[in-house]
Amino acid sequence: MTLRSFSHSYPVLGGAYYLAGRAASDVKRRLGEQKAPAEFARRVAIATYEAEMNICIHAISGEVVIVMEGERVDVVANDRGPGIADIGLALTLGYSTASEKARTMGFGAGLGFANMQRCADRFQVSTQVGIGTRVEMTFLPRPGEIPGGAEPCS
Amino acid sequence: MKISDIVALLEADVLAGRDGLEREVPSAGGCDIISDLLFFGKPGMLLLTGLTQPSVVRTAHLMDIAAIVFVRGKSPDERAIELAESLGMPLLVSPHSLYDCCGRLYVLGLPGVIGSTRRLQAECA
Q1: Computed over its alpha carbons, how large is the radius of gyration of chain A?
Q2: Which among B55, B62, B64 has the least Cβ separation from residue A105?
């Protein structure tokens, strides 16, 4: 798998649930068009969607930057928001500070960071309370992920 | 199990994706929490849910989910239907509850998408 060089920044607005997911849909489509392994495309899309939803749920605004190069996809989610006071607690399975509104929409189960960590091959989160949070993820094909499996999808 | 068989078993109406009704689904899950779906969902599965906003369809597409059944007669909004139609994803509406829909499919051999979550919880601990 050799991906065409690509770099794009997708703005994400806090509370705009209907708009969130654009970066994830777009990266999945691009990987599908380039016959990336289906499971690889799925991992990137899921983790990107989790990152977008985190901005949508918790922050005022932010952006998700996707960079594709060679066999590698990098996803950086950067937001302007409350930051995370206790990062250890935030990474605990099932812990969430999501609003009632987010939960009504079916989000905020406290699985997002665990899911990103599971999907990504490198995961790093840095945060400053009152300023914002930055999540950096790298994806590389894993053994058993066979090229040509992803369906081109809209 | 074929999606067309599921339409009959759940007495469902088809709102989108009629061309995909002959696809087979290997497993299913009932879920009203998108975060859970993102964590536990498997490619090719059938999703049964009471959530009707467009993000359910978008999430299902990202997860490579084959089709969605909306339970308790709840119809998704027009944006969700349009999105599913553009993706070729079957959307079904059953008048039965989530529990009853899952039960009908389970007794006829369609397995759940996850077994016990204990192993997963241990992995993530």
Answers
A1: 15
A2: B55
